[in-house]
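Entry 14. Two folds queued back to back today. First construct below, sequence then structure tokens.
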Amino acid sequence: MAFAERFGAVRVSDLEQGGSLRVMFPRPEPGEPLCAALANIGGGVAGGDELAISAHWREGAEAVVTSQAAEKVYRAVDHVPARIETRLTVAAGARALWLPQETIVFEGARLERGLDAELAEDSSLIACESLVFGRTARGERVETGRVFDRWRVRVGGRLVYADALELDGAVAATLDARAVGDGAVAVASLLMVAPDAEARLGPLRAALAPAEVEWGASAFDGCVAARFVARSALALRRALGSAVTSLSGRRPPRLFAF
């Protein structure tokens, strides 16, 4: 999908969809940017599934991409992973927000996920990805599985952010470790890349001070990066909503935060 300024407003300029992925466009609140909501009509992903998402913000465009519901990653058969690849391109003067709802990982799931972003020097990106291990309201606990989550972000062709998270094997035992998750069942990464990003660190920390999750945030090289671990998916969602509001100056779409 691609977004571009046309006739005084940001509109969808290109759209191609197939397989189990679809895009919907809920009506934004007055004064809010265009919103695109991804939907997986397959009901989730399992071992061997491969999803590819590409979103482009043309020059000067502002738009939010979220998801219609939380993604679900089911048990893998024969240790074959599910793969999700996302590519974001943000042109000069554009403002991009990549805010999908959480990915719920089930017992025995295997997921390999990658996010690659290319930004122009004067563009901005706020991106968030979160993982929830099991549906705690149903008493589920993910004892084993594998998750590999990779980020690469470049500005003007220069690598400014690289990150990788891997949980393999005894997922619950790893998250239970005090120095890792201290019993957490949900984790998230949040990144802002913008010319003024580093100035947002103080307000972000103030916004997160009352959050009922563990978090840490730092600023460097035109980026603000934050990590979250939580014992509740709802608490994590609320903390991320506060963080996105602080960084972007407006509330995220209702599909993402409530």
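Second construct, same run, same settings:
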Amino acid sequence: MPGRRGARSGRGWDASPPRPLRARRGQPTDGPAAGHGQSTEGAAADEAGAGGPRSEAAAPPRDEAELAREICLRQLAVRPRTRAELATALTRRGISEEVAATVLDRYGEVGMIDDAAFARAWVSSRHTGRGLARRALANELRQRGVDREVATEALGELDEATEAETARALVDRKLRTTRGEPDAVFRRLVGMLARKGYPPGVAIGAVKEALAAQSAEAAEFADQLDPDALADAELGDGERDGR
């Protein structure tokens, strides 16, 4: 309707292309609409004649030691690492052995790499959180490149009494959700402890005590078990299987 306010402004999805702006006096525009008759091809030719487009300056090569330090810091930001773990990460990124050794030596001097502290913290954390025994913990430390003497010293802080208490706690917790005949439950629980690295004698003794305290039927079954004989049988099977 003529004269009605709010008519279409033509700026919506169906708007016509905007008309080219006129150049201010003394300022040429980019296209032929400015009246100069110079196309974009002509501008490119002029630029080429003046020496070509300006290229970005090539970034200088990064210092290898600086890159090695950056890799180590990123690794250490996730969790503590052993020297062997960091050395592996540097090798994968192409850092030379000489530069890697220099950087790792320096990080060791300032305490950012400490395999002994790593081993102690690992043993405490994994035993408390996952209930792992010394045998399983020793295997994990070896996989992370911890020296055998350093690992042995850290594992020495986990004594046999603590290991036995943890095994019994694991069995008690598992028994709450385990159902079946006593012999099947027995084998299942012993296998669970074995996977966590407990020796046969410790595993069998913990399960026997837990079953004896569970019910009369389980107690009767547990009384028939000889932990020492079962442990010897388990060790014999392991030797025959090459374990």
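Quick look at the second one. The two ends are 94 Å apart (CA to CA). The chain has three domains: 64-113, 114-158, 159-243.
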